[in-house]
Every structure is written in structure tokens, then in C-alpha cells.
Amino acid sequence: MLFEAIRSACSLVGNEPFAVILPDVLIDAPIPCPRQLISCYERHPGCIIATRTIDPAEADRFGVLDVVPLPDAGDGRTLRVVSVTERPQPGSPFSHYGIFGRYILEPAIFSSIDRTSPGFAGELQLADSRLLSAERAPLYAYLFQGAHYDAGNKLGLVQATVAYALKDPELAQPLQTYWERLQPPKIKVAV
Predict the structure, then answer these.
(1) Helix/strand/coil for 130
(2) Radius of gyration (C-alpha) of the chain in whole angstroms
(3) What are 42-101's pLDDT values in tens digits?
(4) Which end of the chain is more exposed for a tag (fewer CB within 10 A), N or C?
(5) Which pLDDT score is estimated for 1?
(6) How far apart, in whole angstroms, are the C-alpha atoms of residue 36 and residue 73?
(7) What is the DSSP string of 79-111?
(8) % of the chain with per-residue pLDDT over 70
(9) Alpha-carbon distance 179 to 166, whole Å?
(10) Does one domain contain both 79 and 131?
(11) What span, in angstroms and rounded, lies between the C-alpha atoms of 13 and 61?
(12) Does residue 160 share a domain with residue 71?
């Protein structure tokens, strides 16, 4: 679906770089993640992928980036992408940098999409198109700052809902009170 959605944006985008924001990925940050990626793009034009380190146990849920540090980046957050693996199999060697649903893409991605063959699970993968577009535009990863919630699964959706509710002045205190009522009473032990 993402693949076709990006392809259909070609006439709207024209010859300009553009941002992609996946709706099932929530990133809570003081500086919005797309703004962080745009700042990276201003220093390093090319395709930019939001990344953070992941636990090996969750690698099969993400696209994973093989990266090398970019010595002249200055901020220590910009990495050069060498390869992309869509959801590596458990136990296989992989990098610890996951893909997190925010991208800045160059218009070259459209011709790469047209040349992409089915990949993981026999589906067309944006990861494969990004690698093809790296032939014409550099491919970078940016270690974004902020909390990530995967609202595409039940636990992630609940975690995001609770985190955002606790930030809301109207909801935080009632939610705290509710949780306190759910806690079993503490038993005092006399010695």
C-alpha cells in the first residue's frame, strides 16, 4: 500500500523532495521528526530515513539499515546507508538500526519504484526502491530524537494512548487516580 501511495504522489510532488509520514508510527519529540529530517536534508541532500537503535528481539518487525558513520556530519546523528534489509529473520546477522516511518525522499524514487521487483514476502518494498534510488541520490539515516510508538500493534497503540494522555492536563490526574484504584492495597506487615 505504501508503495502505491508514494507512486500516486508523483504528479503532486513534481521535481521536489518530499516527506513521507506513516500513520501507524507515532514519534513524540520536542522537535517534530520530519523537521529533524529536513534539517538533516539541508546539510546532506538525498533520501533521509528516520532511524534509532533496536533490540535484536524486535528486528523482525522492522526494516533494518546497515550504516556507516558520516565523519563530516558534525552532529553524530547522520549515517550513510549501505544496505536495507526488510524484516530480517531471527538469528540472522543484522545491524541494530531500524526504520521508523518517517522519510525525506528525492523525486528519483519514482523511477526507482518503476524498476523495483517484488522482494520480502513477494511484495514490492519501498526499501528496495530506496536502494535503487541511491544510485542517483545519496541515502542517509538520521538518528531522530523522541519517543517512538508502533500504533500498528495493540500494545504500541495502548502505550501511545497512555503516553499522550499523561501529557494532557485534563486527563493526566484522572488517569493517575484511575490507576491508583486498580492497584491492589499494600499489605503492612507487623514485625
Answers:
(1) helix
(2) 20
(3) 999 999 999 999 887 777 777 888 898 887 767 789 999 988 777 766 666 567 898 999
(4) C
(5) 57
(6) 14
(7) EEEEEEEESPPTTS---SEEEEEEEEE-THHHH
(8) 79
(9) 12
(10) yes
(11) 30
(12) no
| Pairs from 115-120 (Cβ < 8 Å, separation ≥ 24) | 116/3, 119/86, 120/86, 120/87
End-to-end CA distance of the chain: 64
Please list, in sequence order, all residues whose beta carbon lies within 8 angstroms of the beta carbon of residue 180, skipping any fewer than 6 positions away. Answer: none
Domain tally for the chain? 2
Q: Residues 20, 107: one domain? A: yes
Q: What are all long-range contacts of 11-16, with beta carbons under 8 Å and residues at least 24 apart?
A: 13/107, 13/110, 14/107, 15/107, 16/107
pLDDT of residue 156: 92
Q: Does one domain contain both 100 and 87?
A: yes
Q: Whose CA is closest to 80, among 118, 36, 104, 46?
A: 46
- Cell digits of residue 107: 523525486
Task: Classify residue 189: in a domain, yes or no.
Answer: no
Question: Are 25 and 91 members of one domain?
Answer: yes
- CA distances to 77, 115, 127, 182 from 119, rounded to whole Å, are 29, 12, 9, 47
Please give the Cα distance from 100 to 78 (Å, whole number): 15
Can you tell me the distance from the alpha carbon of 81 to that of 66, in angstroms, rounded to the nearest whole number? 6
